[in-house]
TrEMBL record, chains A, B:
Sorted UniProt keywords: DNA-binding
Protein name: MerR family transcriptional regulator
InterPro entries, sorted: DNA-bd_dom_put_sf (IPR009061), MerR-type_HTH_dom (IPR000551), MerR_fam (IPR047057)
SUPFAM superfamilies xref list: Putative DNA-binding domain
Top-level taxon: Bacteria
Gene3D superfamilies, per database record: 1.10.1660.10
The HTH merR-type domain, residue ranges: 1-70
Any matching Pfam family: MerR_1
Length: 213, 213
């Protein structure tokens, strides 16, 4: 399809598409003449992902470029490729290295991962932004007087393990490795508000069940 | 305890405590002389919550005041009191009323709530900020080409139902209604990054299990 059709089908203005092309967020189309290029379904899919990252996830252009480079790197194993794409997303706060609350929190996270038998997460440890964000969040909780230990976290981690299995089941529906990684990135950015609002709704429901209105 | 001890035990500078007192975020201490007031454990607890809201949750002062008014309103039933406190927290985006994607998304959410038998959430519906945030998030997903229907959401909602049961179990540990509501507000603000980073860790673990590293 030509640029105008790509714009029509995606709902993205041609000027924005040209900007994404210039910034290397969208691969160039196939040149068919000096002034025209041809785009395919992969461009349409990639355009959706770029919008999800930039418009909804508020991911800066440089970080989005890094995410997409990992999505496209088929020299990586699937877990590393998925990890590299997700790790390039902007992350929460990092723990301060000398903060005693962060040291204690890291100890609890390590105990949690050992108790759960999450051997990959233990092995990757501090390299994973999710690990660092968890440590920082627990350090903040402790500093504010709401300490939270491995025993307390374990049932939540088990629930999130089941949620992650649903996430990965959903990815299985996508036929190619690149589409799987694209869908995982979109899900990471777009599904967090869905999950958090489902949690609030569930809290209201459970509270009404226990205490009445 | 005097102001200096309240500051020492909470780690909050006295100038900040005075600011919270002036803004009505912390109830006044009991006057013991023209220049001194006495503070109790309830002040210490409230101070923790105010810091969680303002410093971590980035909740504006006016919204924090509204949250705390609901926390303190013992004329309300427990679910309504909890709801009022959580509803006063800043929320995600609201759906545009005339957006056809939002109308379709609201239909899917209503179907989901019916399928799950979440009768309170159905009854409250659009009044709940969590309902509106969910509708807006689903409308965004559809607009970006990642539609998501009730059947797809149901297993996630069931997981969040179990997570909400854990949340409410945790609240049971607090002895008084006001402490329960305080803990719920702190959890809403502080536990979201914990849950989201546990989800990412679980995804890494599950991916390594299925696809290797």
């Amino acid at each position: 399809m030509r640029l105008a059709e790509l714009s029509g089908r995606s709902g993205v203005p041609t000027a924005t598409i040209k900007y994404y092309l210039r910034e290397g967020l969208l691969p160039p189309g196939e040149r068919v003449s000096a002034t025209q290029a041809e785009y395919g379904e992969a461009h349409l899919r990639r355009l959706r992902l770029v919008r999800a990252l930039i418009q909804v996830g508020k991911v800066p252009v440089a970080a989005a470029r890094e995410v997409l480079a990992a999505v496209d790197d088929d020299s990586l194993g699937q877990t590393i490729r998925l990890g590299a794409a997700l790790w390039a997303l902007p992350q929460g706060v990092r723990p301060e290295p000398d903060d005693p609350d962060a040291v204690a929190a890291a100890r609890e996270v390590d105990r949690l991962l050992a108790d759960l038998g999450w051997s990959t997460s233990r092995e990757i440890g501090n390299l994973s932004p999710a690990y660092r964000t968890l440590v920082a969040a627990l350090a903040t909780l402790a500093r504010l007087g709401y300490p939270c230990d491995a025993a307390h976290l374990a049932p939540y981690a088990e629930q999130m393990g089941r949620t992650a299995a649903l996430d990965l089941d959903m990815l299985e529906e996508y036929p190619t490795p690149v589409e799987k990684v694209e869908a995982a990135v979109a899900a990471a950015v777009l599904y967090e508000p869905v999950l958090l609002s489902l949690r609030r709704l569930a809290q209201e429901e459970e509270s009404a069940r226990r205490y009445g209105l």
